[in-house]
């Protein structure tokens, strides 16, 4: 009894002297203790650890649950402004960023090269410095990834990659949230990419293994992913103990796949290569014949916009297709990125199993 009473007074003293330690004693460390992304840039998922990626997905789940399902208003961006630079046209990236930032109480400003002096009368360096003085973050959708690297060097606020020729990290976060919701976890899933070795694939390659996912890649000869990124992917596969397959045979890549993914074969700026590309990608259309060798619980993803030569209607509009859920999740994941980079907010929803 004396021991218990003494313990009581020790804890009471602890309450006054170190409330933070007491919270750790009773409930474990607060969520932000291990992962803090405030002030960071998001140019590529390669720069984010497994725990940081999980934190972003947890944040997205939390915001979606509280705002969409519980009807809460979370003005986490109130008083903040977002500069949105778009060199390329967009539907999902623009709409998700613009509506998402506004839903959080912030003010987004959509800027194209026709709206501002970028690249004509004003250098990227000067633009980055000006935007840093007037806004809290920059989201840029550009042609050259090197422009993002320069922007982060000159800007004093977080820079978010809305798409570049090398990476599309916001898309892949949305893909992972969609798979997390559908399968209840990511670890152990096999993702199969059938198509061009492009920026979307690069973002999968630099992140999937960190979350315990195996990766199969099928690309035609001459359209393989970037060699530097391929080497990084091989290192990740060894480090995290995942399987990696690179082939030119779509059916081989589809074998045992839980998730089949493709994208446009002709990206913006590649229109002159259309005839050559269509010829090279013959046999790469995803059909019900393709999925016969996939896992029984297979699903399909496409970042949109979609063309019939990439995937037929039977797969694209099937109950196994998650493309429209995937499109909506662009909004929740981009909101999670903005909240994580600009605030100290911690998710309230119980952390999902990854």
UniProtKB/TrEMBL annotation:
Residues 40-181 form the Aspartate/ornithine carbamoyltransferase carbamoyl-P binding domain. It comes from the Eukaryota. Residues 188-340 form the Aspartate/ornithine carbamoyltransferase Asp/Orn-binding domain. It is found in: Mitochondrion matrix. GO terms for cellular component: mitochondrial matrix. One of its GO terms (molecular function) is ornithine carbamoyltransferase activity. Its main location: mitochondrion. GO terms for biological process: ammonium homeostasis; citrulline biosynthetic process; L-arginine biosynthetic process via ornithine; L-ornithine catabolic process; urea cycle. InterPro entries: Asp/Orn_carbamoyltranf_P-bd, Asp/Orn_carbamoylTrfase, Asp/Orn_carbamoylTrfase_sf, Asp_carbamoyltransf_Asp/Orn-bd, Orn/put_carbamltrans. The keyword Zinc-finger does not apply. Pathway: Nitrogen metabolism; urea cycle; L-citrulline from L-ornithine and carbamoyl phosphate: step 1/1. Its EC number is 2.1.3.3. Gene3D superfamilies: Aspartate/ornithine carbamoyltransferase (3.40.50.1370). Keywords: Amino-acid biosynthesis, Arginine biosynthesis, Mitochondrion, Transferase, Transit peptide, Urea cycle. Homotrimer. Belongs to the aspartate/ornithine carbamoyltransferase superfamily. OTCase family. This is ornithine carbamoyltransferase. It comes from Anas platyrhynchos platyrhynchos.
């Amino acid at each position: 009894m004396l021991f218990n009473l003494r313990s009581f007074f020790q804890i009471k003293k602890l309450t006054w002297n170190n409330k933070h330690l007491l919270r750790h004693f009773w409930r474990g460390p607060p969520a932000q203790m291990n992962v803090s992304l405030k002030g960071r840039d998001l140019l590529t998922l390669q720069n984010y650890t497994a725990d940081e990626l999980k934190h972003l997905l947890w944040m997205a789940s939390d915001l979606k649950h509280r705002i969409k399902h519980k009807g809460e208003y979370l003005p986490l961006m109130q008083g903040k402004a977002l500069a949105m630079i778009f060199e390329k046209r967009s539907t999902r990236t623009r709409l998700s960023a613009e509506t998402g930032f506004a839903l959080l109480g912030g003010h987004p400003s959509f800027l194209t090269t026709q709206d501002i002096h970028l690249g004509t009368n004003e250098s990227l360096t000067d633009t980055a410095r000006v935007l840093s003085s007037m806004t809290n973050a920059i989201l840029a959708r550009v042609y050259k990834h090197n422009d993002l690297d320069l922007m982060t060097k000159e800007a004093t606020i977080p820079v978010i990659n809305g798409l570049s020729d090398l990476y599309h990290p916001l898309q892949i976060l949305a893909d992972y949230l969609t798979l997390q919701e559908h399968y209840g976890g990511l670890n152990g899933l096999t993702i199969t990419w059938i198509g061009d070795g492009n920026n979307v694939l690069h973002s999968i390659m630099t992140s999937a293994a960190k979350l315990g996912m195996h990766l199969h890649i099928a690309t035609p000869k001459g359209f393989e992913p970037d060699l530097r990124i391929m080497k990084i992917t091989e290192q990740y596969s060894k480090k995290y103990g995942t399987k990696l397959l690179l082939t030119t045979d779509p059916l081989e890549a589809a074998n045992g796949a839980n998730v089949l993914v493709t994208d446009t074969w002709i990206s913006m700026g590649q229109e002159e290569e259309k005839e050559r590309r269509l010829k090279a990608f013959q046999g790469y259309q995803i059909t019900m014949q393709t999925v016969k060798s996939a896992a029984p619980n297979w699903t399909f993803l496409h970042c949109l916009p979609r063309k019939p030569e990439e995937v037929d209607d039977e797969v694209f509009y099937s109950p196994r297709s998650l493309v429209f859920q995937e499109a909506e999740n662009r909004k929740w994941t981009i909101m999670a990125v903005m909240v994580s980079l600009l605030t100290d907010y911690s998710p309230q929803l119980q952390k999902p199993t990854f």
